[in-house]
Amino acid sequence: MDQKSHGTPPAIGVATPVPYSAAATAAAPYQAYHHLYHQQQQQQQQQLQMFWADQYREIEQTIDFKNHNLPLARIKKIMKADEDVRMIAAEAPVVFARACEMFILELTLRGWAHAEENKRRTLQKSDIAAAITRTDVFDFLVDIVPREEGKDDAIPRGLAGAPTDPLAYYYVPQQ
Question: Quick one: how far is CA 29 from the chain centroid?
Fold first, then answer.
C-alpha cells in the first residue's frame, strides 16, 4: 500500500528525502549573484574584444587622414604646453587624435557597461568613475575623476576575476 496516496504519515525511522538542505538554500543567493556576475563579465569582455577588433579593422582601412573627430589645432596646442617640446611633426597630432578618440570610446564603453548593470540608460559621471576604478590601465585617472561619495561603495577591481564578495557588488546603497 502506498502511504502517500492515503495521506498517512511515513513510518517512524524511515528516512524521507529533503528537497533542499539548509546549506544549499543559504548558498543559493550567493551562487545566483556569482553566476550573474560571471555572465556580465563575460559579456563585457566580449564587447571589449569586439570593440578593439573593430578599432583595428578601422585603422587598417583608413586612407583619409584629413578628417578627424577631434580638433588637431587643440591637440597641437596641448602638446606644445610641454616646454621641452619645440617642434611637432605633422603626423603626430593626427596619431594623438586617433589615440584620444580610442581612449574616449573605450572609457565610454566601460562606463556604459556600469550604467547597464545599474539598469540605467543614461551615462553618468559615477559610471565613468566606476570604469576608471575597475580598470588598472586607468589608474592614472583615479585622482582626476574621483568617485562620488556614497555611490558605488563596493566596486570590484578588474574584469577577469570575481569580486571577493559578490553580494557587495550588487548592493546599491539607498539614500
Answer: 22
- Rounded Cα distance between 68 and 15, Å, is 75
* Contact partners, residue 145, CB within 8 Å, separation at least 6: 125, 128, 129, 132
3-state secondary structure 94-157: HHHHHHHHHHHHHHHHHHHHHHHHCCCCCCCHHHHHHHHHHCHHHHHHCCCCCCCCCCCCCCCC
> For residue 117, what is its C-alpha cell?
548593470
Q: Could you tell me the sign of the dihedral formed by the alpha carbons of 62, 66, 68, 73, in that order?
A: positive
* Inter-residue long-range contacts of 52-61, CB under 8 Å, 24+ positions, other chains counted: 55/102, 55/105, 59/98
Query: What pLDDT shows up at residue 111?
Result: 95
| pLDDT at 168 > cutoff 50 | no
Contacts of 154 (CB under 8 A, 6+ apart): 163, 165, 168, 169, 171
pTM (2 decimals)?
Answer: 0.61
Q: Scan for cell 580638433, then name that residue.
A: 71
